[in-house]
Amino acid sequence: MKYYARVENKIAYKLGLITAEKAMNPAHISSKKYTNEIFEIDRKSYENGSHGYGLNNNGKKVNINGVLVPDKYVFVF
Question: What single string gives the DSSP state of each residue in 31-62?
Fold first, then answer.
């Protein structure tokens, strides 16, 4: 099974996951702006991420392309 994630736009840009050009065209999920780019992640990262529209903030990190992103900035599906 494959797992995917989107990262809040500002954080993804600051961490170097997306370019400035990609940051100018965010996807809107609920009231937040996420990357249009969808990242493939592993199962452990999926379990650490935020499911649905609520925020998890349990201090876990999600590994996205080798960059550890705090779970509260990641939407997984």
Answer: TEEE-SS-EEE-HHHHHHSEETTSPP-SS-EE
